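Morning run. Coffee first, then this:
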Amino acid sequence: MLKLSELEIIESKLLLQEIPQGKYLINTVNAHSFNVAQKDQVFSEALRNGDFLIPDGASIIKACKWIQAMSKPKERISGWDLFSFEMQRLEERSEQIDVRHKVMFMGSSEKVLSMIKEKAFLDYPYLDVITYSPPYKSEFSQEDNEAIIKAINDANPDLLWIGMTAPKQEKWAYSHWEELDIHCHVGTIGAVFDFYAGTAQRAPIWWQDNSLEWLYRLIKEPKRMWRRYVIGNPLFIWNVIKEKFSRS
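And here it is:
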């Protein structure tokens, strides 16, 4: 079982600057992923053994404080925050040294990836965008995995985003980490692909600032999100209570 108290979590957005250059896997953890990891051993290992973990949810921050966890994040760092920070930093680096760096988006549909490429061309003119859309299926075959790995290695990106929803994206990156012959940060950011492309809308700032982005998503997509939040939120509280008192 994944224990929140034992996770090493980045505690503020400012500390994103301290992640060194090189091949590092950056995952996010929120109430939903924490719940799923209680019953998914590979996912639990992926979150526990990745290089860096960011707190994508106010519930994680409050729970870490309440149970006196090893890490006590001070603010939420969403997948979007990570994306914006890494993209802007690489853009500035490219402009400063007048060398175009490559960003690869692996995941999602050809339509979404095409929209990402168009938007990034305007937002990040010093970056070259490479995309790869894997087959849409619950599990990849060996041939699928080999093709994805080859595409990534051939691209040799300076930044790699993986967007296949949790826990698939984290498990894939973790399981194939040693086969990726790359030198860059790798972020598993799921819904950010759709947010950036404009095919899905993030909650307005007020909802985000008041820790209600989950409610906004539930209102927008009740059929898809009700189980995650209506059942998942109480389950997260129960899991945290169990961990709190198992340590007493």
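Residues 1-13+37-77+205-248 form one domain. Good start to the day.
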